Amino acid sequence: MDIRHIRYFLAVAEEQNFTRAAAKMGIGQPPLSQQIKDLEHEIGAPLFHRLAHGAELTEVGKAFQQEAVHVITQVERAKSAAQRAARGITGRLRVGFSASAIFNAIVPTAIRAFQQTYPEVNLSLNESNTSQLLTKLANEELDVVFIRPGSIKLDSVDFQLLDEEPMKIVLPHEHPLATHSALPLTALRDEPFVMFPRTVGFSLYDEIIMTCRRVGFEPKIGQVVPQISSVVTLVAAGLGVSIVPGSIAQVKIHGIEYLDIEGDAPVARLAIASRRHEHSIIVQHFKTLTLSRLES
């Protein structure tokens, strides 16, 4: 028994006539009659009383009709679900982001736009450091990630640059240099830096250190915090100075000042990454939507 048999049966039951049912299904009457006979043979009982001018369901046919309708309904639901999944309307998407990336407006805007456009997709979010995000991406634990890309390139990962934001100096409010609106990095030559470990964000860490070296000094690491979001808190406590992506300046904490950097300045890059040979239409939808927002 297959779906075709059930559809033919329901057509005859509805039309109460083999000829009209055949016309409705787009086949000849003899083949339709044979399909019904095959179905009756499989069931082991007649489904219709053959009348001079039509067909009438037997008690067996009526019982079969009740369940057959449910079968067709379920098949249509399954077909619709498969088609929606094929179009990327339903399914799941696992998005990762680094602690500093989420401060860039591109990231929350992309996530919000995707939720609004594809509300039936099950969206889950994961915050981690760049190394862990790339590992989870490679292990298929995440589908797409927002990271601060560094010099490391992976053959299995596709990176698309989204933004290059200038970084800013963070000073305690009472610091003598805090009255300036902008400073060169060299003004921090003798200051203790509040920094996060390189393992937390190697690209930002390297960008800051290399830029300081490029302008002629080695930054003095005073305090190390577990994550970049803690940097401004310790600067406010007067434990040193730091350099952070410009988007973090939206974090308004009493006791700190954000200053622009004059001359050679580090840049915080933001990229979206996915597996290079990713076939998921949902991932493609997310990336396309994210990139389209940049162009609008």
Summarize the SSE layout with pairings.
Layout: H1 3-15, H2 18-25, H3 29-43, E1 48-51, E2 54-57, H4 59-86, E3 91-97, H5 106-117, E4 121-127, H6 130-138, E5 144-147, E6 157-172, E7 182-184, E8 192-195, H7 202-214, E9 220-224, H8 231-236, E10 242-245, E11 256-262, E12 267-275, H9 281-295
Parallel strand pairs: 3-4, 3-5, 7-11, 8-9
Antiparallel strand pairs: 1-2, 5-12, 6-10, 6-11, 6-12
Helix pairs in contact: 1-2, 1-3, 1-4, 2-3, 5-9
What are the defining features of this structure?
8-stranded mixed beta sheet, alpha/beta, two-stranded antiparallel sheet, 296 residues
What's the mean pLDDT score?
A: 91
Run of helices and strands: HHHEEHEHEHEEEEHEHEEEH
The DSSP helix count reads: 9
- Strands, total number: 12
Strand content: 25-35%
CA-to-CA gap between the ends?
54 Å
- What does the largest sheet look like? 8 strands, mixed
Structural classification: alpha/beta
Portion in helices: 40-55%
Low-confidence stretches: none
Question: What general form does the structure show?
Answer: rod-shaped
As a whole number of angstroms, the C-alpha radius of gyration is: 32 Å
